[in-house]
């Protein structure tokens, strides 16, 4: 499987990702031709070779000649729906914009339908998002991964005045995705709302085992002294369904918490990035009934998950041992089903067709809206996902 790893040591934005893909071999003419299918006027895409702190990179620029109105999510979805693009590209672009609208709505205390996407509703941002989705497809990328993100410092100008860095919508997107971040004193905005929306929707935050084939550098607009303002894109091959991943198994015995408290702790662990968490009944000394709370996590998350266990449970200690996990390739896709927006998990194995499993929270919402039994919703969403995403597989 061909994969892309976004090495965001200096942040990420939509134009940096476009530049990195072009630098890694994506055809500028081919991308222009594809994006010409957008029902938008008054823009052009160009790319130039530049240097950022001595590193050669490609700077992608979307020039806009016409004044553009402030757009709502509905406006943007109408543009995407009217584009001459493959349906999977449209679905991924819609997912990016929907996540951004949800973040903006929460920050501004408005509904998703009412909030105006000032920055991301602009033509250049629409081209960046759709260009990212289509460009990855044109490069043959099937899986996207991303490094931890540096957030920068200072202030940035917004439609309503100065905002702290990272911008509120950016921080909300990263928070909702549980994205890993790293501290930096670098001044300025390193992760833009557009960049945050793209990576939190399309990427998994880890570095994959891969055979490296190509590296591309996408330049940001600024050229700060002493720091290469570039996004580094790694392209290569990862073997589907045959890899193992080192993990940690954390366990603790608990005999003095209520079931409700244990359920809360379990849900909190999952929400905070644990790969899995489960409860097993055991009998402790003196015949006391108890449970073993087991947590599977990545090695990099050990300290954070242990601290969470100590804070959210009554335990005084946590056992830790290394394990490894065999993993099938998987991804999460969002699409517009006949019942409404649906989310499915996709499992892929070599030489076999993909398998689709509706995501529970999405299926529950559709069941409540439609009045159908949730089992029927599962059947409909699974069938429609297979029909939409297995064409040509």
How much of the sequence is in beta strands?
25-35%
Shape descriptor reads: globular
Query: Uncertain regions: pLDDT < 50 for 5+ in a row?
Result: none
DSSP helix count?
11
Features:
globular, four-stranded antiparallel beta sheet, about 400 residues, alpha+beta, Alpha-Beta Plaits, four-stranded mixed beta sheet
Question: What's the structural blueprint in terms of helices and strands?
Answer:
Blueprint: E1 2-7, H1 14-23, H2 28-35, E2 43-52, E3 55-64, H3 73-81, H4 87-108, H5 123-138, E4 143-146, E5 149-150, E6 152-153, E7 155-158, E8 161-164, H6 168-177, E9 181-182, E10 188-189, H7 193-202, E11 211-219, E12 230-237, E13 243-254, H8 259-271, E14 276-283, E15 289-298, H9 302-312, E16 319-327, E17 329-337, E18 340-348, E19 355-358, H10 360-370, H11 374-389
Parallel strand pairs: 1-4, 5-9
Antiparallel strand pairs: 1-12, 2-3, 6-10, 7-8, 11-12, 13-15, 13-16, 14-15, 17-18, 18-19
């Amino acid at each position: 499987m061909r994969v892309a790893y976004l090495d965001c040591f200096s942040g990420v934005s939509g134009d940096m990702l476009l530049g990195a893909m072009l630098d890694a071999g994506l055809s500028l003419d081919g991308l222009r031709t594809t994006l010409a299918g957008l029902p938008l006027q008054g823009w052009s895409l160009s790319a130039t070779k530049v240097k950022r702190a001595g590193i050669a990179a490609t700077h992608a620029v979307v020039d806009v000649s016409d004044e553009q109105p402030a757009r709502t999510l509905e406006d943007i979805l109408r543009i995407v729906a009217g584009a001459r693009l493959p349906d999977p590209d449209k679905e991924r672009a819609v997912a990016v914009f929907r996540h951004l609208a949800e973040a903006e709505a929460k920050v501004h205390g408005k509904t998703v339908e009412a909030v105006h996407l000032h920055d991301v509703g602009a033509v250049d941002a629409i081209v960046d998002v759709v260009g990212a989705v289509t460009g990855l497809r044109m490069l043959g990328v099937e899986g996207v991964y991303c490094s931890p993100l540096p957030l920068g410092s200072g202030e940035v100008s917004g439609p309503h005045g100065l905002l702290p860095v990272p911008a509120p919508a950016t921080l909300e997107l990263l928070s909702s995705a549980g994205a890993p971040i790293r501290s930096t004193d670098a001044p300025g905005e390193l992760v833009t709302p557009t960049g945050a929306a793209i990576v939190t929707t399309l990427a998994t935050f880890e570095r994959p085992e891969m055979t490296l084939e190509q590296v591309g550098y996408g330049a940001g607009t600024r050229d700060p002294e002493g720091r290469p303002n570039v996004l580094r894109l790694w392209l290569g091959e990862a073997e589907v369904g045959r890899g193992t991943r080192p993990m940690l198994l954390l366990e603790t015995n608990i005999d003095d918490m209520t079931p409700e408290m244990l359920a809360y702790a379990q849900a909190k662990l999952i929400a905070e990035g644990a790969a899995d968490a489960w409860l097993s009944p055991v009998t402790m000394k003196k015949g006391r009934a108890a449970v073993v709370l087991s947590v599977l996590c990545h090695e990099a998350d050990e300290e954070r998950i242990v601290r969470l266990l100590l804070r959210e449970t009554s335990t005084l200690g946590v056992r830790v041992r290394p394990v490894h996990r065999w993993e099938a390739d998987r991804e999460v896709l969002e699409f517009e089903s006949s019942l409404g927006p649906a989310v499915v998990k996709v499992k892929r194995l070599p030489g076999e067709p993909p398998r689709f499993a509706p995501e529970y929270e999405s299926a529950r919402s559709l069941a409540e809206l439609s009045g159908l039994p949730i089992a029927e919703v599962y059947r409909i969403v699974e069938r429609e996902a297979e029909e939409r995403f297995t064409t040509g597989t």
